[in-house]
Amino acid sequence: xxxxxxxxxxxxxxxxxxxxxxxxxxxxxxxxxxxxxxxxxxxxxxxxxxxxxxxxxxxxxxxxxxxxxxxxxxxxxxxxxxxxxxxxxxxxxxxxxxxxxxxxxxxxxxxxxxxxxxxxxxxxxxxxx
Length: 129
Known about the structure:
With about 130 residues, the chain is α+β, with helices and mostly antiparallel strands. It has a single domain, classed as YaeB-like fold, CATH 3.30.2310. It contains three helices and six strands; from the N terminus they run ββααββββα. It has helices at about 25-35, 35-55, 105-120, and strands spanning about 5-10, 15-20, 60-65, 70, 75-85, 90-95. Strand 3 (about 60-65) and strand 4 (about 70) form a beta hairpin. It is globular and about 35 Å long.
């Protein structure tokens, strides 16, 4: 994935982007690509709302998961992300929800991907929500 291909949505408040590794692979984008049109639309609507208005007050749609990781929650999918300075949100990984709690491995992966992203982009720092 090229850097210019990673933008999901650019709004007045935030630009939302896919995380990609050093080889250009993007697990969250690959997951998104397998979703049906309805699932894709739900996710893109949440990105548009966050990008244009800067917040989503409904915790059933967007939630702080702790450790600087947030979740877009279009049922039944989850897209984990973090805020970055420069008004960007980086979507680190995605999965289908199967239980009441987030699988620990998904949060660990989100933290690992955030660390990787920030180490490869030293000119940028993590932002705050």
